[in-house]
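ok trying this again, last paste got cut off
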Amino acid sequence: MRGKSSWLRVIVGFGLLFAAYAATRLTNLTSLPIFTDEAIYIRWSQIGAQDAAWRFISLTDGKQPMFTWVMMILLRILRGSDPLFVGRVTSVIAGFGTLIGLWFLSYELFRDKKIAWLSSVIYLVLPFSAWYDRMALYDSLVATFSVWSLYVAVLLAKHIRLDTALILGFVMGAGMLNKSSGFLTLYFLPVTLLVFDWKMKSRWRRLFRWAFFVMLAALLSQVFYSILRLSPFFHIIGQKDNVFVFSLSEWFDQPFRFFAGNLRGMFDWLRSYMTVPLFFAAFASLFTRWSKTRERMLLFFWWILPFAALANFGKVLYPRFILFMTMPLLPLASDTLLHMLGTVRRPFIRIVLILIFFIPSLSLTSMIVFRPVMAPIPFADRGQFIDDWPAGGGVREVVTFLRSESADHNISVYTEGTFGLMPYALEIYLVDRSNVRITGLWPIPPVMPEAIAQDATQVPTFFVMNARQEAPLGWPLTLIGEYKKGNSPQDTKLRLYRVRVPSTVAL
C-alpha cells in the first residue's frame, strides 16, 4: 500500500511539473521572431505534410528527417495554427520528454527520488533548455533521444534483458534518424559498464550476454537508419557533416590545432547557459562524497567524451551543439545541492543555498520567456537569433503588408536569397495565397533582371532585402519600410521595397 501511495505522489508531481513546464515553454512562444533555420525546417515540414513524395526533403540539405517528421504530424493536427507556433511546439514536446527522461535516469542511477525531482526541476528552470525548448530546431529532440538512450543503456547494463536491448536499438535508431550526433550514444555504450555488477560470480557470462545484446541493439538501430537509404539524397548527409566537423584526414593534417580554442568557447557557452552556480555544482559532485561513485563517473564521462570529441573535431560550432551533452550534468548538480542541504541544519542557511543555486537561472529564464530580445545569452547565439541577418525581425510586418496588398489582386515578391529566411519565412505564411508569387534571387546582380522589370509593369512588385544593408545601386526601388533586428548597435535591418517601372521598359 505504501508503494502505491509513493508512486501516486510521483504521478501528482509529474502533473505539477507538466503545468510548470507548459507555463515556461508556451508563454509568449512566438514573441521572438523566426530564425532562419526555423524557417527552413518549418517550410520543409509544410511541403512534406502535403506531399508524401517529399517526406525526406530534409536530406536535400544533408539533415536527417525525424524532427521534420514530427513537425509534419503536428502541422496536420494543428491545421490553421501559426506555423511558427507549431514548429516550436515540436521542441516543447521534445523538451518535456527530456524532463521525464532525466527523472527516470536520475532515479535509476541514485535510487533517490529527491535527486530525480531536483534534476527535473533544474531542467525546468535551466536557461539552456528554456531557450532551445522554445525554438523550432533539432536540438531539443537530440537531447530527448540522448537522455532516453542513456537511461535504457543503463537498464541494459544492470539487468541485461533482450527486451531492453530491443528498446535501446529503437531509441538509438530514432536518435540517429534525427541527427548524426545520435551515433555518439552507440559509440559510448561501453561506458555504461561502470554500472555493471562486476561482483557477481557469473559476471563473465553476463558480460558476454551484454556484448551480444549491445550488438543486437546496434544492428537494430542501423536497420532503422537504413530507411534513409531509400532517398537518392542520402549521400548528402556525409557532405553536410564535413561542413561542421573535420574528417580524420583533415584532422591529421593539423591535429589539435583548434582544440584549445574550441574548448574555451564551449566552456564559456556551458557556463553561460547553465549559470555559474549550477555549472560548478555539476563538477563539485565528483568530490563532495564517495557514495555512488561509479554512477557519478558514468554521468561525467557521458558529458566529457562527446564534449572533448566536439572540441577536437569541431570545424563550425554553435552553442546548441552542446545542449544534449549538458543533460548528464543536471543529475550531478542536483546531487551536489542535496548533499550541501543535508549537511546544513539551519533552515535559513538552506534557503540561502537554494536561492544562490536557482536565482541566476530563474532570472535568465524569466527574461527568455518574457523579454527574449533582452536576454543576455551567449554572443554566438544572440547574433544568430536576435541581432544579425539570420534573425527574423521584420518578417511579421512584411507578411502583414503583403497579405493586405494581395487581398484582391495578384502581386509578385522577390527576395534576397533562395534558401533560408528568405524566401522561406514568407512562403510559410503566404503558401495559401495562390495570387502571391514569391521568387528568390541570389546573387544580387548590379542591374535589375528583366523579369522583375516586366513584373513591375503588370502587377504590384516588391523586393525584400535581408542580409545586405543597402539597396543595389541603379535599381528603381522605393522604400516601404525597414525593420530593426534586436537591439544591436550594428543596426541590422530587414527592408521592404516597392519596384518602380524602369524608364527603359516599354509599358
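PB: full thing came through this time. The chain has 22 helices and five strands.
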